[in-house]
Amino acid sequence: MKHVSTGLLCGVLVLLMACGNSDKKEISELINTCYAKREHYANVDKGLLSSDLVTLIKAAEQKEKDAAEQVAKSDSPTDKPLLIEGDIFTGLYEGPTSNEILETTIQDSTAIVKVRFTNNIEGNITWEDEIHVVKQGSWKIDNVVYGQENPSVLGNLKAVLTSFNQTEL
Hints:
Nuclear Transport Factor 2, Chain: A, 3 helices, 4 strands, alpha+beta, 4-stranded antiparallel sheet, single chain
């Protein structure tokens, strides 16, 4: 009986390890897909994002549209409308030219992925951000906590979007 339970325990452990590796592989593919081609935040594939993050992005898109319409109708149509500029999916305004996943920590249906980003367009800037991922059917990006020390940027992606969405027109 002791040999049967030891064998069963080993089998369960192997299965659990395989699931963890499968999740890490899926998360890695998610991160690499999202960061392979840098675009304006509104053009990011929303299928890669959590429902909360999609809601914030859609609200920001609407805010930009409303601001543009308001400026067009104003007495000063040359004014600049309210916009989100720069790469808000990383802590550097210019965004990355490459990324490397350093560590993935999974706990239940959430994960934190430490990613090293590099921008080698103007010098060689390297920084690390934490990408928070949630399981909503498949793994989805839920937030990015900026590691880059940039006083003009709030500490994370959701904070940037929330602040923008609360800005008065």
